[in-house]
Amino acid sequence: MPEPEKKIIAVDGTETGVADGGDAAAQPIVFLHGGTPGITPYAGGTHVWGGVPGRFAGRHRVVAIDLLGSGRTGYPDRPALIDDYGRHALATLAALGVEGAHVVGHDLGGAVAFWLGAKGGGRIASLTVVASAEPTPLIDSLEDLTFLNPPGRDYDYEMQRWAYDRVSYCDRHIDGALMAASLAAAAAPGVTKARHFMADPAALPRLTASIGRLKAEMWTLNKTTGWPVPVQYIWGADDPLTPRERGFKLFETLAASQPHCQFHLVPRCGSFVFREHPQHFVDLVDAFVDGLAETPEAFRYP
Amino acid sequence: MNVASTPRMRDPRRIDIDGVETTYFEAGSGETIFFVYGGHFGGADAGSSAQAWDLNFGPLSSQFRVVALDKLGQGRTGNPKRDEDYTMAAVVSHAAGLIKALGLRDLHIVGHSRGAFAATRLALEYPELTRSLTMVSSGTTSPLISTNEIRLAGSPHPFYTRESARFTYEGYCHDPRAVSEDWIDRSMEISSLPRVPECMDKMYGEGLYFRTFIPNLARLKRETLQWLGEGRLQRPLQIFWGLNDQTADVGGAFELHDLVSPHQRVEVNIFGHCGHFPYREHPARFNQLMSRFVRKVAAQAEPAHA
């Protein structure tokens, strides 16, 4: 089976980096990386998934997307809102002809995954949300100091390595390939543009507000027609950025209306579950996807 | 591992363990999973037996050797021989006796509810037989208060009727559709055995439940929580729980995680839309997680499994 191939495609006029591979005829798994462009002190993109997407290439079509302002993808001419991220990801899936996908989202990518779950219709089969603070309901949580005082400057090696280490249980996964790709991403035009726009102090509150509107829509669906797709939540037991209580509250909230959902704590693990414990991560995604497929009619609880 | 199309548990096997006629089930080959279901002698679920695992036994037997026993004084296994054996300690010794008699080792022990307490004691007392431990929905093992007696109170049906069995299992499960007629059938087969009223008479007529069973369990539980907190469990631990369990609060999963995780890897899997029986309420996803956990732990022991 072909390893995911990195390429750049045009999506509604935006240059978009994707990795696409695996069994083109099989059910797709889509990966949405984390990091808020211009805010988080590392430069995210498809590269943060490391070898994990390739592990699914034997049994699935595998697609990883550089979100707006990350990797090799461009950025709008104003600070992006969550709807911009969501629409761009959905348009990318449409451009690639991806239907019925299991979507895996980390950190901000988890919020994009929920946006797709709410508005993506038939293109989404399930969500796997990994260490993602943005969509959790605890608006009165403590000020987050994880990235308060980064060392280094301008997304240099020191700053980015520090950022990855801050949110990890163990730094062993921070390898040369991750650092080289993150340094390259930091210099890409889309990322540079995102940093420019997000430097405005008013930009982040507007993004946060847009995520607040997405959450209001999630809670409304939960109370009315029900959260539409199965969700699993994967949390590192030692994640300093997104404590387990936040993920568990999100799980508990949407479980009220969605019968197929599960929450996992991964031991000795920070925010990058798929890098620190790739085998465990692949097992959890496989078990969820295969378990949903094998669930007999009598246990579907429609 | 299709749940619906796999054969049910058949062919109970019989063996004498310290004078007690003991029933167990066995199938498949490879890494050995040893199942210990919940409940204790007497009690609202007097009909519980090894067949509680029948949605898991068949599917997992395609990859593993699976063994499930009817515990001492439950299912088709005989009652304790002596009054002082109406204890959890005796249940654990009896299970260990079966494991040794069958020559089993390197076990992946899976226990549910009170059975998870017995499974935990097996892993702590017989580390040489244990490769991993899986606790499922165990208020008995967690430091929290179990609420079975509150949730299951007030059954309008006489004991040992289909209606009372259904009342009990629907009280345990989040969605009544999980309580199949088949499950009730097997419960009725057990609760109609002549052994059951004898056992109930010992426990409640003669008062062994409050005189012997509960004090022994309380002492063992104190010791077990102390041992877990000291790091005596030195095998991978996996915890399953149902978010909506009305008899053992889901907080117990985190309490147990926090107790053991300073010393030992603990994986936590919690299912939504799920009460006290994750392995029956969501069997396909339970089996998937179970098989991958066993394969992963086995690969750590023997790289050939990787």
Give a short overview.
With 302 residues, chain A is an alpha/beta fold.
Question: What layout of secondary structure does this protein have?
Answer:
The complex is a heterodimer of chains A (302) and B (306).
Chain A: E1 5-11, E2 14-22, E3 28-32, H1 52-55, E4 61-65, H2 82-96, E5 101-106, H3 108-119, E6 124-130, H4 157-166, H5 176-186, H6 189-198, H7 203-223, E7 231-236, H8 244-255, E8 261-266, H9 273-276, H10 278-294
Parallel strand pairs in A: 3-4, 3-5, 5-6, 6-7, 7-8
Antiparallel strand pairs in A: 1-2, 2-4
Chain B: E1 13-17, E2 20-27, E3 32-36, H1 54-61, E4 65-69, H2 88-101, E5 107-112, H3 114-125, E6 130-136, H4 148-151, H5 162-172, H6 181-191, H7 195-205, H8 208-230, E7 237-242, H9 251-260, E8 266-271, H10 278-281, H11 283-301
Parallel strand pairs in B: 3-4, 3-5, 5-6, 6-7, 7-8
Antiparallel strand pairs in B: 1-2, 2-4
In DSSP terms (H or I, runs of 4 or more residues), the helix count of chain B works out at 11
Which of globular, elongated, flat, extended, rod-shaped describes the shape of chain B?
Answer: globular
Number of β-strand runs of chain B:
8
Task: Specify the CATH class of chain A.
Answer: Alpha Beta
Return the string of H and E elements of chain B: EEEHEHEHEHHHHHEHEHH
* CATH topology descriptor of chain A: Rossmann fold
Please explain how this structure is put together.
The complex is a heterodimer of chains A (302) and B (306). With 302 residues, chain A is an alpha/beta fold. Chain A is 38% helix and 17% strand. Chain A has ten helices and eight strands. Chain A has helices at 52-55, 82-96, 108-119, 157-166, 176-186, 189-198, 203-223, 244-255, 273-276, 278-294; strands spanning 5-11, 14-22, 28-32, 61-65, 101-106, 124-130, 231-236, 261-266. Chain B has a single domain, classed as Rossmann fold. In chain B, 42% of the residues lie in helices and 16% in strands. In chain B, helix 1 packs across helix 11 (283-301), helix 2 packs across helix 3 (114-125) and helix 7 crosses helix 8 (208-230). Chain B starts with 12 loop residues before the first strand and ends in a 5-residue tail after the last helix. The interface between A and B is medium-sized, with 35 and 34 residues. Strand 8 of chain A pairs antiparallel with strand 8 of chain B, so a sheet runs across the interface.
